[in-house]
Amino acid sequence: MPSIGRSQDTFEKSSVDPSDGERNDHETFRNAKAQDGKTKRVANKMQPTSQQAKRARLPKKGTSGGSHPTLQASRDESNLNPPMEASPVGQQRPGTSNAAAAAHNSGSPSQPPMASRRTVTSAPQTSHTTPSPRRISVSVCSSAYEHNVKGFVSKLTELQTRQPRLIADVRFRSLPYNDIDSFKFPSSDPVDVMVLCHSVQNRGFSITNVLNALYEKHLQYCHDVIGKKKLAVIVHDFSDCKPKTLEVRMESFRRSQPLAFELVDTVIVCGSLEVPGKIEMRDEDITRLTTFFKQARYEPKENTADKKSFVDTVLGKFGF
Fold this sequence. Notes:
This protein is α/β, with parallel strands linked by helices. The protein has a domain at 136-300: Rossmann fold. The chain has 12 helices and 5 strands. The protein has a 5-stranded parallel sheet. The radius of gyration is 57 Å and the shape is globular. Residues 1-135 are annotated as: Disordered.
């Protein structure tokens, strides 16, 4: 039967040797096992080690408990991968955590930030201290008799009684009638604050800058040794004491005899100063005189007459 023979031949040719099948099965098993090992190693790399997981589960020191995996992981990454070198100002240094960098930039609670710790120094300023007020000694000086200014001296004594912290004492000083240019106050009895009184009925209205001026050199001397801020001049005994008339006389005095206003602080024109309680002086002029006394108490008391006489003596020896 020829067909059957061909079938058997075909079957015999298509059959596989059993030893060859076993080899194929073992080879397939080894390949599958090797592939499974690679898969497990990749999975193990993706999972944290037991030591890293244990470190991540540990609570942070100084806290009440609980885990901080995120902060610990960031610290591990910082330790494993330190950042690049940065600028020393305002940036994190290598090997430091974010918290340490923030503390470095902002400063500790007991210290201000680095920017605020910069101090700006300014140039030293000199302090100008105002001298303390003192009690002044008033000298009423005149080449006329004392009774001609008795009312004025009495007025100043009343002011001394009302304001004892302003005026310490009031006294009259007589000036020479002739040769007043060469007169000097004694160094043993200097003048503190001076009020020069001149009567127009006695020697006319010639103070400075005019022919036969009486006080041009003397006022210059008083200006040098006493000081302008402590000098006053009162021209008195005008018969017409109307306010308008006195204003005209004062303006004429200022124009014709300007040196008097340059050498002294306060200038007053008025009527009689003889009778106590009835002096012919305007209230505004009395107020000006009181203001003059209050300002004079801030001036130094020491007298420069000795210094000036010494300088004059030295200059005289050298022919100056």
